[in-house]
Specification:
alpha/beta, 3-stranded parallel beta sheet
Length: about 80
């Protein structure tokens, strides 16, 4: 499925405990998008970019992988919001 996504973000609280996931990211996607915490500002920017791209008639398929990340109530709200289709 590596070719189905234009952007993959991975947020893993204990990345060292998940070398398989880290290896997958390094092999198929960009390991610079491997984070140890939820980045609220980055997600806000991502949502804004997605809306702008859709307004321009462009689609970008994004996969966000979460594993063992502590989420604030704002982060939970970001996850629960309806994404543009």
């Amino acid at each position: 499925m590596s070719g189905k996504f234009d952007l993959v973000l991975c947020m893993v609280g204990s990345a060292a405990c998940n070398p398989v996931l880290e290896s997958l990211l390094s092999t198929y996607w960009d390991p610079r998008f491997f984070f140890s915490t939820w980045d609220q500002d980055m997600i806000d920017r991502l949502l804004q970019q997605q809306e702008e791209l859709l307004q321009q008639g462009q689609r970008r398929e994004v996969l966000i992988i979460l594993d063992d990340v502590i989420l604030s109530s704002k982060a939970e709200d970001q996850l629960a919001s309806e994404s543009p289709s």
